[in-house]
């Protein structure tokens, strides 16, 4: 069974710009994924305002009975989040790796328009390699 | 210069030895700059052929300067006059200065006598670039083709230079081939020289 269920990238205004699911659990259609992305965007923003701690950057981890949701927000407001099996530890690292791939293969691509859905062959290729490597290291332990 | 204790003062700037140049620049900085170059030109063209031509023109100016500089710096103010000489100059000297390595291969075209190919598994300018499906066979290597054309034209070897993607078996990514087609006069001169 796959450790990661799905990966989302949303732009700073809450639009889904990248969605990929891995394995059969938690798969959803296009409308649902768009809805979930903008829902998460709003929840993230609200949590930032409601939080009792000063300088809170929003939700980083949401734990549920059947899944964990890890979120990473870049300085420009682009959010990366993965839905994965409960109790997996190293997701922050993976999100950073994905962010790095995004800055390399999406932002340095002259044919990518900012805030628009990501359709870059090299990004897909390197992303699947990173996920694959992550799985191998997970099973290796 | 290793061992030079302090910087020598030259009365005339022309007496100063030519600097070796900085050997490394940030790949990210270059990638962003190149990406902007492509985007800028993209807003000023109607079709892909035009964009390719503009990138080639941008590279041409680089090539002309690189030839001048390298003949002075590496060759003691001499330049290659023979076909194979200039080709290996492009393949090794120019490539090394621009991309930090020699090109992966230099081959002679099998079908035509006047064609040569420089192939690169992963061209530096294409490292982060994914070409959208609707742009067909467009290759940002046109910029590098322009550089090669600039060098060859400047050295007296007029040629048509183009960049192409060539699929490689067992690889996800195609390699880039810079195709050089020399003008007739070049081959005639070469034949005369024997």
Any idea what the shape of chain A is? globular
What overall geometry of chain B do the principal axes of the alpha carbons give? globular
Oligomer kind: heterodimer
- Taken together, the total number of domains of chain B comes to 1
Adjacency order of strands in the biggest sheet of chain B: 1-2-4-3
Mean pLDDT of chain B: 89
CATH topology of chain B: Muramoyl-pentapeptide Carboxypeptidase, domain 2
- Specify the number of helices of chain A: 3
Report on the structure:
Chain A: It is found in: Endoplasmic reticulum; Golgi apparatus, cis-Golgi network; Golgi apparatus. Chain A: One of its GO terms (biological process) is endoplasmic reticulum to Golgi vesicle-mediated transport. Chain A: It holds the Pfam family Sybindin. Chain A: This is Trafficking protein particle complex subunit. Chain A: Part of the multisubunit transport protein particle (TRAPP) complex. The complex is a heterodimer of chains A (141) and B (194). Chain A is α+β, with helices and mostly antiparallel strands and 141 residues long. In chain A, 40% of the residues lie in helices and 20% in strands. Chain A has three helices and five strands; from the N terminus they run E-E-H-E-E-E-H-H. Chain A has helices at residues 30-50, 91-105, 121-140, and strands at residues 4-10, 16-21, 61-63, 68-73, 79-84. Chain A has a five-stranded antiparallel β-sheet with strand order 2-1-5-4-3. In chain A, a hairpin with a 5-residue loop joins strand 1 (4-10) and strand 2 (16-21). In chain A, helix 2 (91-105) runs antiparallel to helix 3 (121-140). Chain A is globular. The two termini of chain A are 15 Å apart. The mean pLDDT of chain A is 89. With 194 residues, chain B is an alpha+beta fold. Chain B has one domain (27-193): 2-Layer Sandwich (Muramoyl-pentapeptide Carboxypeptidase, domain 2), CATH 3.30.1380. In chain B, 43% of the residues lie in helices and 13% in strands. In chain B, strand 1 (105-108) and strand 2 form a beta hairpin. In chain B, helix 2 packs across helix 4 (142-154). Classes of the chains: A alpha+beta (141), B alpha+beta (194).
């Amino acid at each position: 069974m796959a450790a990661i269920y799905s990966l989302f990238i949303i732009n700073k205004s809450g639009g889904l710009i990248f969605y990929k699911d891995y394995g059969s659990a938690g798969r959803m259609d296009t409308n649902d994924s768009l809805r979930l992305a903008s829902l998460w965007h709003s929840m993230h923003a609200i949590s930032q305002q409601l939080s009792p701690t000063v300088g809170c950057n929003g939700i980083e981890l949401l734990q549920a009975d059947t899944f964990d949701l890890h979120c990473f927000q870049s300085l420009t407001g682009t959010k990366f989040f993965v839905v994965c099996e409960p109790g997996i530890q190293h997701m922050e690292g993976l999100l950073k790796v994905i962010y790095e791939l995004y800055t390399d293969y999406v932002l340095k691509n002259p044919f990518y328009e900012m805030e628009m859905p990501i359709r870059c062959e090299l990004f897909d290729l390197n992303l699947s390699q990173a996920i694959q490597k992550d799985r191998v290291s997970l099973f290796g332990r | 210069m290793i061992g030079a204790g302090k910087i020598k003062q030259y009365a005339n700037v022309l007496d100063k030895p030519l600097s070796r140049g900085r050997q490394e620049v940030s790949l990210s900085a270059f990638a962003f700059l190149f990406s902007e170059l492509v985007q800028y030109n993209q807003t000023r063209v109607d079709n892909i052929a035009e964009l390719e031509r503009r990138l080639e023109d941008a590279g041409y100016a680089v090539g002309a300067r690189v030839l001048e500089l390298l003949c002075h710096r590496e060759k003691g103010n001499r330049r290659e006059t023979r076909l194979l000489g200039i080709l290996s100059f492009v393949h090794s000297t120019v490539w090394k200065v621009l991309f930090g390595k020699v090109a992966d291969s230099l081959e002679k075209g099998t079908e035509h006598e006047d064609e040569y190919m420089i192939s690169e598994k992963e061209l530096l300018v294409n490292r982060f670039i994914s070409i959208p499906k609707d742009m067909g066979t467009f290759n940002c290597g046109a910029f590098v083709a322009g550089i090669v054309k600039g060098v060859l034209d400047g050295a007296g070897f007029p040629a048509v230079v183009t960049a192409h993607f060539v699929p490689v078996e067992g690889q996800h990514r195609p390699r880039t081939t810079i195709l050089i087609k020399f003008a007739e006069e070049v081959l005639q001169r070469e034949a005369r020289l024997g």
